[in-house]
Amino acid sequence: MSRRDIFACTVKVMQAEQKIPERRSRKARRTRDALARAAFELVLDRGLREVTVEEIAARADLDRRTFSRYFASKEDAVLNSVRGDGDRINAALRARPADEPPLTAYRRAVLDWLADPDAPAWHRRPRIYELLVLAEREPTLYAAFHHIRVDAQAESVAIVADRLGTDPLSDLRPAVTVAAGAGALLAAQAAWVRGDRPDELPRLVERAFDALAGELVTRAPAPHSTTSTTSTTEGNGTP
Question: Over the chain, what HEC string results?
Answer without folding.
Answer: CCHHHHHHHHHHHHHHHHHHHHHHHHHHHHHHHHHHHHHHHHHHHHCHHHCCHHHHHHHCCCCHHHHHHHCCCHHHHHCHHHHHHHHHHHHHHHHCCCCCCHHHHHHHHHHHHHHCCCCCCHHHCCCHHHHHHHHHHCHHHHHHHHHHHHHHHHHHHHHHHHHHCCCCCCCCHHHHHHHHHHHHHHHHHHHHHHHCCHHHHHHHHHHHHHHHHCHHHHCCCCCCCCCCHHHHHHHCCCC
